[in-house]
Automatic annotation (TrEMBL), chain A:
<dbReference type="InterPro" id="IPR002878">
    <property type="entry name" value="ChsH2_C"/>
</dbReference>
<feature type="domain" description="ChsH2 C-terminal OB-fold">
    <location>
        <begin position="64"/>
        <end position="127"/>
    </location>
</feature>
<dbReference type="Pfam" id="PF01796">
    <property type="entry name" value="OB_ChsH2_C"/>
</dbReference>
<dbReference type="InterPro" id="IPR012340">
    <property type="entry name" value="NA-bd_OB-fold"/>
</dbReference>
<protein>
    <submittedName>
        <fullName>OB-fold domain-containing protein</fullName>
    </submittedName>
</protein>
<dbReference type="InterPro" id="IPR052513">
    <property type="entry name" value="Thioester_dehydratase-like"/>
</dbReference>
TrEMBL record, chain B:
<dbReference type="InterPro" id="IPR012340">
    <property type="entry name" value="NA-bd_OB-fold"/>
</dbReference>
<feature type="region of interest" description="Disordered">
    <location>
        <begin position="158"/>
        <end position="180"/>
    </location>
</feature>
<feature type="domain" description="ChsH2 rubredoxin-like zinc ribbon">
    <location>
        <begin position="36"/>
        <end position="65"/>
    </location>
</feature>
<dbReference type="Pfam" id="PF12172">
    <property type="entry name" value="zf-ChsH2"/>
</dbReference>
<dbReference type="InterPro" id="IPR002878">
    <property type="entry name" value="ChsH2_C"/>
</dbReference>
<dbReference type="Pfam" id="PF01796">
    <property type="entry name" value="OB_ChsH2_C"/>
</dbReference>
<dbReference type="InterPro" id="IPR052513">
    <property type="entry name" value="Thioester_dehydratase-like"/>
</dbReference>
<dbReference type="InterPro" id="IPR022002">
    <property type="entry name" value="ChsH2_Znr"/>
</dbReference>
<protein>
    <submittedName>
        <fullName>Zn-ribbon domain-containing OB-fold protein</fullName>
    </submittedName>
</protein>
Length: 146, 180
C-alpha cells in the first residue's frame, strides 16, 4: 500500500481525577514506599483498597499496611509492548496477592520471558526512583531473589 | 501516561491522567480526490445519479438511494454559502487548547450543495452579528498550506475561515430545511 493512503493521528485527553480518602491514602502510601489496603468489618484485607466492602456494600475507611512482596495468582505475557505500557520490553501482566492481603492487584512483572513466569511464584515491588503519589510509583514487580 | 499529583507533600488528593488514542486511518480514494481538489482551491461534491442530491464532502455513495457515486458524478461547489446555524465557543484552557478568545463555528449551506458543512470557522464578523442566512465566502489558506483531512470529515486546513460577503441575507426559505 502506498504510504500516502494511510494517515495517523493521536487524540489525547488530560483528566484530573479527585481520589477521595481511600484511593488518595493508597497513593500517598505508595509515595512513601508503603502499600496500603482497606480492611472490611469482617477483616478481609483488600488491595488495592476499595471504598466499600464488596460483600456487603458497607463503606470502608480503615487502611492497613500490607507487604511489598507477594504471590502471582494469574498472568499474561505481553510480547510486544505498546506505547503506553509501563515497560518498553516484553513483560507480563500479573495479578499479585501481596503478603497480608486477601485480594490481588494487577501490575507489570519484569521477567526474562514467559518461561520465567508461573502462577504461585514470589514477586516483590520495584519502586520507582521518583515517586509522585500514583500507581506508577510501583515501577513494576520483579521476581523475588533477583 | 504522565501522572502527576500536583503536590510533593501532604496527602495525595488528585491524579492527572493523560488518555491517548492512536488512530491509523486508511484514506479512501473519494476523500483523497476531494483533498487534492481543495489543495487547488476547488470544493467538489458528488451528485447522486438517482435522486440528484449533492453531497459535500462527497461520500462515494448516496446514503438515501444506496447507490455508489464516483468521479463521474463530481460537481463544482461554490466557495460561498449561507450560515444555517452556529455556536459561539468559549475555550476552556485544558491541556492542548490553543484557542484563547471566544470564536464561532457554523454549519454552512454552500451554493451547489444540498447538505451543510459543519464546524466551519467564522471570521471578520462580530460574534453578536452572526445570524441565520448570513452570506459568507471562503478565506483560503495559501497554496501549499492546504492539508486535507484524510478521514474525509471536513475541509482540512484548506479554508481558514469564512467571512461575510456584505450582501443582503438569504431568505428563510433558503435554509429552512437545513436548520438543526
Amino acid at each position: 500500500m502506498p504510504p500516502d493512503t494511510e494517515t495517523t493521528f493521536t487524540m489525547e485527553l488530560m483528566y484530573r481525577r479527585s481520589l477521595g480518602p481511600v484511593v488518595g491514602g493508597f497513593f500517598t502510601g505508595l509515595r512513601d514506599q508503603r502499600v496500603l489496603a482497606s480492611r472490611t468489618a469482617e477483616g478481609r484485607v483488600i488491595c488495592p483498597p476499595l471504598e466499600y466492602d464488596p460483600e456487603t456494600g458497607d463503606g470502608v475507611d480503615e487502611l492497613v499496611e500490607v507487604g511489598a512482596a507477594g504471590e502471582v495468582t494469574a498472568w499474561a505475557w505481553v510480547a510486544e509492548p505498546r506505547r503506553k505500557h509501563p515497560l518498553d520490553r516484553p513483560f507480563a501482566w500479573v495479578l499479585v496477592r501481596l503478603d497480608g492481603a486477601d485480594t490481588a492487584m494487577v501490575h507489570a512483572l519484569d521477567a526474562e520471558g514467559p518461561d520465567a513466569v508461573r502462577t504461585g511464584m514470589r514477586v516483590r515491588v520495584r519502586w520507582a526512583e521518583e515517586r509522585t503519589g500514583t500507581i506508577t510509583d510501583i515501577a513494576c514487580f520483579e521476581p523475588e531473589g533477583t | 501516561m504522565t501522572p502527576d499529583t500536583e503536590t510533593d507533600e501532604g496527602d495525595v488528593r488528585f491524579v492527572r491522567q493523560l488518555i491517548g488514542l492512536d488512530y491509523a486511518v486508511r484514506t479512501n480514494p473519494v476523500a483523497r480526490a476531494f483533498g487534492e481538489a481543495l489543495a487547488e482551491g476547488r470544493i467538489t461534491g458528488h451528485r447522486c445519479p438517482s435522486c440528484g442530491l449533492v453531497y459535500v464532502p462527497p461520500k462515494g455513495f448516496c446514503p438515501i438511494c444506496t447507490v455508489p457515486t464516483g468521479s463521474e458524478h463530481e460537481v463544482a461547489i461554490a466557495d460561498r454559502g449561507i450560515v444555517t446555524s452556529w455556536t459561539v465557543l468559549t475555550p476552556i484552557q485544558y491541556a492542548g487548547q490553543e484557542e484563547r478568545e471566544d470564536y464561532a463555528l457554523a454549519s454552512l449551506l454552500l451554493e451547489g450543495a444540498d447538505g451543510t458543512v459543519g464546524q466551519q470557522r467564522l471570521v471578520e464578523v462580530a460574534l453578536d452579528e452572526i445570524r441565520m442566512g448570513l452570506r459568507v465566502e471562503a478565506v483560503w489558506a495559501p497554496e501549499g498550506e492546504r492539508e486535507p483531512d484524510d478521514r474525509g470529515y471536513g475541509l482540512g486546513t484548506a479554508i481558514t475561515g469564512w467571512r461575510p460577503t456584505g450582501e443582503p441575507d438569504a431568505p428563510a426559505d433558503a435554509y429552512r430545511e437545513h436548520v438543526l
